[in-house]
Design brief:
The structure is a single chain. By secondary structure, this protein is α/β, with parallel strands linked by helices. It folds into 3 domains: 126 residues, Beta Polymerase, domain 2, CATH 3.30.460.30; 144 residues, NAD(P)-binding Rossmann-like Domain (Rossmann fold), CATH 3.40.50.720; 72 residues, no CATH class. It contains 13 helices and 8 strands. The strands form 2 sheets. It has a 6-stranded parallel sheet. Strands 1-2 form a two-stranded antiparallel ribbon. Helix 7 links the parallel strand 3 and strand 4. The longest helix is centred in the C-terminal third of the chain and has 69 residues.
């Protein structure tokens, strides 16, 4: 559907370039237009989605010029996301860019703007701590595990439950190269489904005691009203492990792991309240980093606008060069003919230099003299700046 949408909107006379970003919670249309065309784009949105005219207008926002540039940079840096600083949106922007590239709806302006946005996002990630601090329970749990076990490639994780949070934990662990994942769940089929996605191994809850000693990391999140792991079971596992530490995270409410387990030596037990404190600290850290990111973005908005302004000069520069090239060709042809007629090379070269100088400077000189009559001092000042001339003494 996206390639179709890109092509359909690109066919509008006023739309020169277009990129469409579509995610789970936002759809944004980035356009380069040759005139005010808000109504055209809005009409297309209604028609493409077969909506009554005006039905989606109350839910729309639009930016143009510097505001549009600023908005894209903020989106790329994760400053406009539900989770401040989240990195997934950058990948989605790159996908949108690729789709537009394949659909041939990208041109010089939007192409340059998106490449600029990617570079700014990289700069923000490098120069600030916007993405350094985990702000989800799942990611915070895995980050703590990485602090305790420096090399997850040597570790085994036992995940209890198969809901959304455990799925996220499993994916984060898998992405971080965990050696082995065991999924334990009341419904073995759900455990198998999740285990298959992360190259894991599924067991039922009744098998927990037999596998607990294998686990370096235990993360639990079930809907059980009673604890699933008690102090006695963990003590037995530690004895089998010869006191090798276990990192445990209990995300469930009410708790899946008895609070007394935390009193055991070689057990690092965190509950959901512990993680929330860490997450709140990290959110504040990201807010502070976001202020730095906004400063970077403001500077980069100015830089891109400066680039846009230089594009206005390109046709003028091309015309000047074409005109100069034409004068050069004519003067050179004349000089070569003089040499063929037997004129001394030194004389031909002098004549060539004089002719080039006169012809290149004739029209600028005429316009400057005329500006004196017309009292257009700005043209004289522009000429001084253009040719880098010092004021006469």
């Amino acid at each position: 559907m996206l390639p179709t949408a890109l092509s359909a909107l690109h066919q509008h006379v006023s739309v020169l370039e277009v990129v469409i970003l579509s995610t789970c919670n936002r759809t944004e249309v980035y356009c380069c237009v040759d005139a005010e065309s808000d109504n055209d784009i809005l009409a297309w949105l209604h028609a493409f989605h077969q909506q009554e005219e005006g039905s989606i207008s109350p839910y729309l926002y639009h930016h143009q010029g510097a505001e549009a540039i600023r908005h894209l940079l903020r989106v790329a840096c994760g400053l406009d996301s539900l989770v401040l600083g989240e990195p997934q949106i950058l990948g989605q922007l790159k996908d949108a860019f690729s789709q537009a590239l394949n659909a041939e709806t990208l041109g010089k302006s939007l192409g340059r703007l998106f490449q600029h946005a990617f570079a700014v996002a990289k700069q923000v990630r490098t120069d600030t701590a916007i993405g350094n601090s985990p702000v989800s329970v799942a990611f915070a749990a895995v980050s703590l595990a990485k602090q305790i076990f420096s090399n997850l490639a040597d570790s085994t994780a036992l995940l209890i439950g198969a809901g959304d949070t455990i799925e996220l934990v499993a994916r984060h662990l898998h992405d971080n190269g965990i050696k082995r994942i065991i999924i334990a769940n009341r419904t073995i089929e759900r455990a198998h489904n999740l285990a298959a996605q992360v190259d894991g191994y599924a067991i039922s809850l009744s098998e927990l005691p037999a596998h607990l000693a294998e686990a370096d990391i235990v993360v639990s999140s079930t809907a059980s009203q009673l604890p699933i792991l008690g102090k006695g079971a963990v003590e037995r596992a530690l004895k089998i492990r010869k006191r090798k530490p276990i990192f445990m995270v209990d995300i469930a409410v009410p708790r899946d792991i008895e609070a007394e387990v935390g009193s055991l030596e070689d057990i690092y037990l965190y509950c959901v309240d512990d993680l929330k404190e860490i997450i709140e600290e990290n959110i504040q850290s990201r807010r502070d980093a976001a202020l730095q990111a906004e400063e970077i973005i403001e500077t980069q908005v100015d830089h891109f606008q400066a680039w846009l302004r230089t594009q206005d000069a390109v046709p003028v520069i091309r015309s000047i060069r074409d005109n100069a090239e034409e004068i050069r060709e004519q003067s050179l042809t004349r000089a070569l003919k003089q040499l063929e007629q037997g004129i001394a090379p030194e004389q031909a070269l002098n004549e060539l230099a004089r002719t080039l100088t006169n012809r290149l400077l004739h029209e600028p000189s005429r316009q400057l003299r005329q500006s004196g009559f017309d009292e257009e001092g700005h043209l004289l000042n522009a000429a001084r700046q253009l040719f880098n001339l010092k004021d006469p003494k």
